Structure formats: C-alpha cells, structure tokens
Amino acid sequence: MWNLESRLILWIVAATAGLAGVAQARQPNIVVILSDDQGWGDLSVNGNTNLATPNIDSLAREGAQFERFFVCPVCSPTRAEFLTGRYHPRGGVWSTSAGGERLDLDERTIAQVFKAAGYATGAFGKWHNGTQWPYHPRGRGFDQFYGFCSGHWGHYFNPVLEINGHSALGEGFIADDFTDHAINFIDKHREEPFFCYLPFNTPHSPMQVPDKWFEKFKAADLKLRADEGNEEDLGHTRAALAMCENIDWNVGRVLAKLDELKLADDTIVVYFCDNGPNGWRWNGGMKGRKGSVDEGGVRSPLLVHWPGHILPGTKVPNISGAIDLLPTLAELADVKITDAKPLDGQSHAQRLLGKQSDSPGRLIFSHWAGKVSARSQRYRLDQNGKLFDMVSDPGQSTDIADKQPEIAGQLQTAVANWRSDVLGELARDDSDTRPLTVGYAEFPISQLPARDGVAHGGIQRSARAPNCSFFTNWKSTKDAITWDIEVHTPGEYEAIVHYTCPEADLGSTIELEFGNQGIGSKVTEAHDPPLVGAAEDRVPRQGESYVKDFRPLVLGTFELPAERGTLRLRASEIPGRSAGDVRGVTLRLLP
User: Measured by CB atoms within 10 angstroms of the end CB, which terminus of the chain is less buried, N or C?
Assistant: First the structure.
C-alpha cells in the first residue's frame, strides 16, 4: 500500500498531466460498505481512542471525509434512501418488519441504474428492504445476492443464509463470510466494471463476535464513555467495539484485494453507517442514539476513496445525506440515471473532485415513527420545535427558538411542507396493506417466514422482535398462522412447512389452505433440536429470538389461482401437547 505522500504526489501528477481523464476510459468500479448500528463515534478517525479502525481511517486519510452526513434513525429507511436517492416514506418504507421494510416496486434502485450501464452487480449481507420477489435484491437490480433479507439475524456463526433465493449454510463468522463472498465477486468481475454492495449486519445485536476480537475488550478500561445521564452498558459497549474492529479488518481485506488485483485506482470505495449507535456509548457528545431524530441518532461517517481523482485528506463540510449517494456515484462514474422518479438527493461529485460548489439554504430532514427534525448547515430544529445552534451547541443543550424566532419559523414551515409532500398518505403507522408477493416464473421459490405471518389463537412468537422469530405454543386446532399473499402466476405449487416437533408430540395433521384449495400431511418424523445462540452472546440479548434448525415437511402440491387471498396454516389434529414450532412456509411454482 502506498503511503499518503505517495498518493498525494500521484494525484498531483495525474491532475497536471491530464491523466485523470484517461484513467476514466474504464468506468470506475464501485464498492459500497455499510455497517449496521455503528455510530459516528465508533471510529478512531472520529476521535474514539477506545478502539482502532486503521483501515476505515485510511479511506478518510487517502480520500474524502464528509463532516456532516446524515442517515435515518433505523436500518431499513437508510437502506431505502441509499438505494433510491429519495426520502424513505416516498418508497413505502415505514417500519423495520411486518412488511413495512419493503421498498415499493415502482422505485428504481442504484443497482438497476448501474446494471443498465453495463455493471456487474452483487450484494452480500443484510438486505432489509423486502424478502419475496420482486422485492428481493435479485428483483431490484442485483445479479448476485448472498446473505439474509430480514432486519436482523439470530446467530452469527455458521448461520443459515440464502444465496440467490436458495438456502445456504454460512461459513464461520457472518461478517467474515459476507466479505469472503464480496471479495470473490470482485475477483470474478475484475475485467469488467462492477458494483459491489457489502452491507454488514454488525455491530447490530445479538452481540456476538469471535474471541480473536473480543479478547482485547472483555476487560478493557474504556477511557471515553457515554455522556453523563445516559446509562452505558459497558459489556454491550465492549462487544460493539470488538465487532467494529472486526469490520475494520474486513474492510482492510477488501482494500488489499483491490490492491492485489491492481484495481484500487479504478475503484470508488464508500463507507457509511445506517443509524446512530445501538447503545449509549461515546459518540462525540451528540444528543441521541439509534431510533432518535436528534444529531446523535442520524449522523454517520461518510468516507469516499478514489486514488488519483479525490485528493487525499479532502473534507466536505456541506450537509449531506444517504439520499445523495445515488446521484453522487452516478456522476462520478458518468452513469446516467434514467426512468427514476425525481430525486431528493443531490450530487457531491464536484466537491469530491476539488471543484467547490455551494448548496445555499439546503435542508436535510430526518424522520421516524412520525417524528421529524430538520437540519440546515448550522441549525437543527428537533421533533418538538426546539432550535439548536449546532456549531456552538453540538449537544443540543440550549433551545434558542425564542432568540432566533425567524429561523425557527422558517424551519417549522419547512417541516410542515415536508410532512405534506413526503409523508402524506404514504405514512403507514401501524399496518401495511401491501400483500406478500408469490409465484413468479423468473423466481419460482417464495419464502414466507414467520416474520411476515400473523398468529391466531394461542400461538406466540419465539421473541418480541419478529425479524428472526419462529412461531411456538401451537396447542389447539383452533389456532392458525396466516399470510396475506397475492399469487402472480396461476399453476401448481409445492408447499413446504419448516417445523420442529419432539417425539412425544408426533402425529399432528398440518394443513395449508388458500381459497378453496388445501393440502395436508401428518408429522411423522421427530425433529427437536436445541436452541442456539446463548453460548455465543457476549451480553444477554434484548428482544431477539434464539434460533434452531428447522426440518422441511412437504405438504404436497395444489393448484393456486392468480389472485389475492389468505394463506392459512392450521392443524386438523393435534394428539400431543403441541403441533410443533414453525419457522415459515415455502411455496414453489412448478414448471
């Protein structure tokens, strides 16, 4: 790896000789790395001495660092804004589960934009913008997908994942595994332009990380702590920092592969996070954490690295957001954005290339669960209408609305207008009327996980958070599990239920119904694996389910019409204490 002085000399020589334009004869590759629940303060480049992130820091040192970059308070909205360049409510993303994480099908994604320009596209990690085709990443412009589509996962070591819609068993620690697949994708497509999306699912809970990374932190004396008044869980912080150092190691592996293949100078590498930290820990004195529309809940690092084009040590002071990534990357790569709805984001390409351009009067809006705050270059109007000078008061401690009534009034009007324009009828606060889509010839396997189902009677979820849950406590023939689905293609479908059942409870007859069609099968094989996950947790998990292995039970085949309706799973006979536990149902359109 060249040092900073060498990089700087190269950039100056290339710019002076006009070679930068020649280098762009090949459109640049794009690598976008997104971490999950890592706060702005979880990087040593931002002053956190509790950990070291040298590889991520190098992106700022040898490239550009955005000083005021904003995302959303939680996961799926940020992903939607990155994908579309538009505020997340415009695309129907209003929740992190129960269907509300899905990105509307009439939205054009960054992967579709780059794929149309001839790029090979791949995503490796946590998707979180829809599971069933065409919400699935393969339906949104990605040629390859390896990972999981849910909002969080219950186990990080050798987990059950998916590859292009088919079940797959991960190898080793989940973040390392995602990186392996991303590196293999880069290697495979080294002779053509590629767009590689690497959305990690760490340091999101459960707090699991290999010993190699945790040893440094398990008894570490952390000098930087959460602000006074915020109760920090030191065990959680230590695990999060260990996970962040693991991410940094994996970022280093990606950079090393680009160097090895001599692709570093032809590749734009982007690094950012999806929301504020998932616990109270040091975050530069900002107010708020994950879930908050205050500064600490929505400020993220954004680092952009492109040797020979972006001057090392570049600082971008202008406020910016996840909505800006699509137009910025498209301009840098000279890729045209076609057939997309009007963007909320703006390009920062000229700033990155050293050509100053201002954005006077720009505002960035942060929204979650009906709460909206507005950020100008200097001020933030919070969800309660309080005004803060973010230059003199970055911790939002003193409301100056009374002293600056004109500015407060302007921002309040802007928020009202934004609510009317962006939220409007798109805001969904407690339900989603869109059905689950199944039965497409180009993607014949439709997964209907427990996360997307509704329990009736005494059936319960395995944990409060639905994203990686299963259904349990199925004791009565009056109980049922339903999914609101819309069948796209009429035809014959094979139905599989993924179950567990102890020996003592064998004999239940499980039936699946849709309209006047139904099939069923008796549970004759015991499968009662243990729950896993607790042994690897560094701190007790909060809300996430433990996981276990589920066995497929083929119920048979039946004809389904192309219509919307309720898919109902029930038991007509339960001779034991329970019919079993259910992870989900798979419908496969037969040729």
Answer: C
Average pLDDT taken over every residue of the chain: 94
CA distance linking residue 261 with residue 263, whole number of Å: 5
pLDDT at 385 over 70: yes
d(CA 427, CA 422): 8
**What pLDDT score was predicted for residue 10?**
45
Q: What is the pLDDT of residues 61-116, one digit of tens each?
A: 999 999 999 999 999 999 999 999 999 999 999 999 889 999 999 999 999 999 99
Looking at the fold, whether 155 and 216 belong to one and the same domain comes out as yes
pLDDT digits (tens, 9 = 90+) for 48-61: 999 999 999 999 99
CA of 268: how far to CAs of 35, 191, 193, 313, in Å? 17, 16, 11, 15
Residues 236 and 219 both lie in one domain: yes
Residue 527 has a pLDDT of 98
Pull the structure tokens for residue 44: 């040593």
501's tokens = 């059942």
According to the model, what pLDDT value does residue 426 have? 55
- What is the reported pLDDT for 425? 54
Residues 408 and 442 both lie in one domain? no
- Exposure string of 287-306, with b = 16+ CB inside 10 Å and e = fewer, is bbbbebbbbbbbbbbbbbbb
Same domain, 123 and 267: yes
E-strand stretches of 274-339: 299-305, 314-316, 320-321
Q: Looking at the domain assignment, is residue 557 inside a domain?
A: yes
pLDDT bin (cut points 50, 70, 90) of residue 427 is: very low
- Among 164, 120, 135, 159, smallest CA distance to 452 is for 135
Residues 516 and 579 in one domain: yes
Cα(570)–Cα(459) distance, rounded to whole angstroms? 11
Reported for 227-231, long-range contacts at CB under 8 A and 24+ positions apart, including other chains, are: 227/280, 227/285, 227/395, 230/280, 230/289, 231/280
Residue 17 lies in a domain: no
Residue 581 has pLDDT above 50, yes or no: yes
Q: How far is CA 382 from CA 292, 297, 448, in A?
A: 10, 12, 39
Whether 18 is in a domain gets the answer no
- The token pair that represents 328 in the structure block: 């910025």
Residue 12 is assigned to a structural domain of this protein: no
CB 303 within 8 A of CB 328: no
Buried b (16+ CB within 10 A) or exposed e, 21-54: eeeeeebbbbbbbbbbbbbbbbbbbbebebbbbe
Last residue of a domain, one of 375, 400, 426: 426
Q: What is the DSSP letter of 248?
A: H
- The torsion angle over the Cα atoms of residues 318, 324, 325 and 330, rounded to 10 degrees, is -110
Examine the fold and report which residue of 320, 346, 361 is the final residue of a domain before the chain moves on.
361
| Residue 24, pLDDT score | 45
CA distance 564 to 484: 8
Burial of residue 425, with CB atoms counted within 10 A of its CB: 0-12 exposed, 13-18 middle, 19 or more buried = exposed
> Is there a single domain that holds both residue 443 and residue 545?
yes
Q: Are residues 302 and 182 in the same domain?
A: yes
Nearest CA to 265 out of 312, 227, 203 is that of: 312
Range of the domain at 370: 365-426
Residues in CB range of 480: below 8 A, 6 or more apart: 456, 457, 459, 568, 569, 570
